[in-house]
Every structure is written in structure tokens, then in C-alpha cells.
Batch of 3 targets.
Target 1
Amino acid sequence: MLGASLLKLVKFGLGFTSIELIILLVGMFISFIVSVLIIKFLMNYIKKHNFKAFGYYRIILGIIILVCML
């Protein structure tokens, strides 16, 4: 995410107003906090449960995608 954001900044320039820069920084900070919390939740989930639900989800999603592509 950081790399993609940096590439966009380089491509489109750094002509931000102060409000736009604050919004960008707040968004990056909130995204970081949410991602850390989600990773902690998933690690705890994996410790207490197995991957059966994830496996079923992937199989069903794969079938749906194959049917939609036909």
C-alpha cells in the first residue's frame, strides 16, 4: 500500500493543499491501525479454529467464478 501510494504521488506530483495532506495522513494512519487489528483478530481466530470454513468458502467462490465465466 505504501509503495503504491508513493508511486501515485510521484506520478501525479506533490501539489497537495494542507487539508488534502492531513486527510491523506489520517487515512493512512487509520488504515494502518485497522490492518493491525484485523491481523491480530485473524491470528487469534487461527489459534482457536481450523481452516475448514475458509476452505469451504474458497471452494464455493471458485465454483461461482467458474460458472460466471462460462
Target 2
Amino acid sequence: MTNATSKPWTPGPEWKQVGDPRLFAPATQRNRDAILDVLRGALPRQGLILEIASGSGEHAIHFAQAMPHLVFQPSDPSPEALTSIKAWTESSGTINVQPPLLLDAMAGTWPLQTADAILCINMIHIAPWAATQGLIRHAGRLLPPGGPLILYGPFRRAGHSLEPSNAAFDASLRQRNPEWGLRDLGEVAALAAAAGFGAPEVIEMPANNLSVILRRL
């Protein structure tokens, strides 16, 4: 995510292989099946699933192959990520993945008008708070009643001590960019409530992460 004052996220060298346009996100192999289990119970039976900040595209391909009854729309603000998503889609032969959209969560307008569900994995802590604000504002406009906005990643929670690994991760993010860092779940829920969402359903995930399901009222 980018704006006039923040340094954008860029993939590290471990994401790349020489001569291959596909990016390889190190965490995807570890978390994709746990996230898929959540999605099976949270997504509608049919429709368009918009993924925000798709990164390498590996998650979108994995979920689309496991749920052929749904259409996945990946997106990202990074041209390098868009190239990777296209390459993954072509190499996998997956037919229910739409061409990726150039989309920045903070933008005033998004290049689509509706979605049946919105998925955002490991984005809001590696972007300015304005990206979370944009994500939730646009989700409130795009989603139908009952449509889910599904967030995945590490969070701060009132009444819960921050795990040592998450505390170290948060410190490293803020050192890289002071606009980044783990978001407080209560603040995210309050922002969502103001945009027309109900109370979050919170699911504990491996490696001190959470899945947060917010449904449009």
C-alpha cells in the first residue's frame, strides 16, 4: 500500500526465483489450509470473492481450486504482484480466477461496484491505518446484507497480553515504517460498526493469528 508519506511494502528476495515471474510467499504454505477451513464456513455458496492485497496470488489460486463453485477476484496495488498473480493463474490452469485488478485500498474509488464477500490476508498491519479505513469503507459499500469481510493476521486485543512473537513482529514493523504495526481489534470493530457491520466473529488461528469475520448488516 502506498501514499505520499509511507514507504510501500515490497516483496523480499525470498519471494522470488530467477527467471520466474511468480512470487512465492513464504507463509502461504503454512497458513493456507487453516484459512481455507474458515472460508468454507464463512463464504457464500456462490458469487464473487474479492481478495484485497493478494500479493503473490498463491492464496487466491489455492482457494479457487478448493472451491470451484466460487469466482475469485484478486487485486493488489503492486504491478509486480499483478504479474505474479497472472503467472500463477496461467501456470495452474485455474479457471475461476478473474484477471487481477490494480487496486489500492486507500483509493477514493475502487474498480468494481459489488462483491459477495471480501477477503484480506495479512494486509492491515503492513499498511497505513488509512488502508484499513479504506478497506472497511469500501466493503460497506460493495457487500450485500450478510456479506462477509474476512480479515486474517495478528491483532492486539484488550485484555490479552501480546504474545512475545507478535510483540517482536510489531516492533520490527514500526521500525520499518512508523505507519505500520499490529492493529487493535476493538478499533477495527468500531470502524466496521460505523460502516454498517455487525460485531466480529473471532476465530483463533495457528501462530498467534486471528480470523475476523465481519458481516454487513
Target 3
Amino acid sequence: MSNETAAPALPRLNAPAPPFTAASTHGPISLSQWKGKWVVLFSHPADFTPVCSTEFVEFARRSGEFAAKNVQLVGLSIDSVYSHIAWVRSLEHHFKVAIDFPLIADLDMKVAQAYGMIHPGAATTATVRCVFVIDPDQNVRAMIYYPMSNGRSIDEIMRLVDALQTHVKKQVATPANWKPGDKVIVPPPATVADAKTRETAGYDYTDWYFCKKDA
């Protein structure tokens, strides 16, 4: 019999996000209560750790920007509600920010296991740094994993949300390093006839398969 630890199950892109109900710093919460909103669910290894503290402070400072994009922030770690409350109060005191989003207390690890947040090769009892972007229909649209040693870029998460929302709204793709205001990529043609018309269709034309336009 192998002694290797099984790899964690992971949600699939564009598949339904695993539903959950959990205790949090805002009381009991369920993923279903945010149907119709985008959700950024992010985990951290533990309360009262320096890298995680920097991330939470930055999420808190930009919480209003996320809210303006119809995004609900939700944090998670395998700590108790009481630990979370103490940490939130400490961050608000030392960094003068209001942490207005809920922080899940996942002591039984049900949410962490459902989302594949436990990676035994990184830590046996802590969640790694994961980010899940969930759309208003509660499908997983993006997943990002970071090592425990390195903090996330909130700018990149914000950019990713903008790109996903642009894709959903306008059915276009976004190129590398895209940011709001940049040109977007037109889906490639599906037929030879359509390919022949691309050069004269009014796009920013490079070749039949690669055209851009204003968002």
C-alpha cells in the first residue's frame, strides 16, 4: 500500500463552485447568498502571520473598489472565529483600516478540502494561498495558487476580475498585460468565409486569426 498522500481535489474552471455554509466573523454565511454577485474567495495559512497581514490590509484598503465591481471578498483559514476576531481587531488597530468582508473559520476544513486548499507538500495543517474567482452564476472562473512564502498582488486580482467581467459582458478575450481601456481580442473566425472578411471588417488587423478592437 502506498504511503503517498493523495493530491487534493480541485474545482474545475467553468464548473459550479463547491457550495458551502460556514461560520465566519460576520456570522454564518453561505456561498449561495451571493448568487448574482462575483465572489473572490481567498485563503491564507494562518492568522497573526506577517505576509497574510499585508494581504488582508491591502484587500481591506481596496474593498470599496471590489464592491464597485459587484465583487464580494471572502477570506478563509483554518483558525477559530475568536482568533479571526482578535486578528481583525489587531489589523484595524495597527494599520488603521476597516476589514469589512467576512473571514471564514474553517476549523473542520470542509471548505478548504472542497476547494483543494490543503497541499501536504507545503504544510500539513494550513491552507496555502489560493484565490478563486466565482461568477454571479456561481461557477469557478479562475484559480490562482501562491506559495506560503509570497504575498499576492491585489493589483493582479483586480485586473483579473476586470478581464473576466469584460469577457463575460462582451464575449471577447484579453491579451497579455491587458488592463481596462486597452484593446481586446476578437474571437477568431470559425469558417474560411469569415476569415476572408477579417482584413476589411474594421478591426485592428494583424492576421485573419488575430484582430483587436476597442472594448
